[in-house]
User: What shape does this take?
Amino acid sequence: MRALYVLLCALCALKLLAACSPEHRDSAAAEDFVERHWAVPLPAQGEVPAGFSALEASLAPEACGQCHAEQWRDWQGSLHARSMGPGLGWQLHLMDQAAANRCLRCHAPLAEQKALLAQEMAWPARPAAPPPAHVPADLAHQGLVCAACHVRGHRRYGPLPGPNRPLAGASAHAGFEAVPAFSDSRFCAPCHQFPDSGPRTAGKLHEDTYRQWQASPQATRQGCQGCHMPGRRHLWRGIHDAAMTRQAIDVVLDVEHRQGRRYAVATVRNVGAGHHFPTYMVPKVELRFAAVDATGTRAPLGTRVIGWTVDTDLQHEIEDTRIPAGAAGRFEAALPEGPERDVELVVVVKPGEHYERTFARSLERERQWPAAAVAPLREALARVRAAEYELLRLRLRRDRRVAN
Assistant: This one.
């Protein structure tokens, strides 16, 4: 018994040491900061501190851009700057304020943004007074603005200074707080990971990116910011960007002979994304197979889809062919009998495929919607269709065949 007691004491001591280790303290501090920083809902900034100039007090991204020009330019071209586009805008006309706020939590999270939209949409719980001077009238429509990540109670927060980078702004804004959590993947999780209680289809969370990363080989090598904010640039590029997408996958095209038939086979390996490729239900990647004869005439052989496809009501899963990080997917199409021909594979990316189906179906019922919702709905559909692009095209000559 004494030996058992000594063993239990030793185990408790080890646990206590682990809990007191720098790694554990740093992790706990990051988790605590993220929880406080992304409280739901975010509180309003409150009174402007005495001594702040109008420029320094402003929540407008362009005000931040006066000193942080590179970050502002990068942000302007990012999806964060377009998170309040017509795709969400038309739906706000169909929602009550509580439902809208659940979307705005990530798309326009500042209390000041929600107040502006409440006034614009004439929701019952809206402020009676106009916004204060530090809140620009268009702030709500600028999406995930600088202040959403960096300003709380008019105090500025950001990452620790990097190598050869001074702590910019340390003497401005009545001080600046550098926080390690800004470089932690958990900082991105409040919007890119739904809780277990979040919406699901076929038992799968609609947004599960952070946990996909946790289970990936990249989790021990690189966080979200390393890929999506290289060199700390505020780009957040993803599947809408061809160069980023091309880095994520390796594609090999072959022809296999099986039981007297020939098949075009595409092997797609997720070599670069630190999560499923693609990560959730909205994007799709199409593999379009074709046979090409000596005259250049193409005969389509069919299309295979990489992605998580669900119906537009989000009730039923159609298929899930996403490729986890480090894994490979195999997609094939039967070749026609007769003379051998070249095989072509065209990889087409549709960043908003699920939205395209949803918006098109909604337009079929446009008479049901408020008139103010129809124009942004049409614009949203046009935008998702325009976002489609060809990623790559492979051609396998008829004299190169791979036997299985």
Residues 4-23 have pLDDT under 50 and may be disordered. The longest strand covers residues 249-258. The first helix runs from residue 2 to 20. Residues 31 and 186 are 7 Å apart (CA to CA).
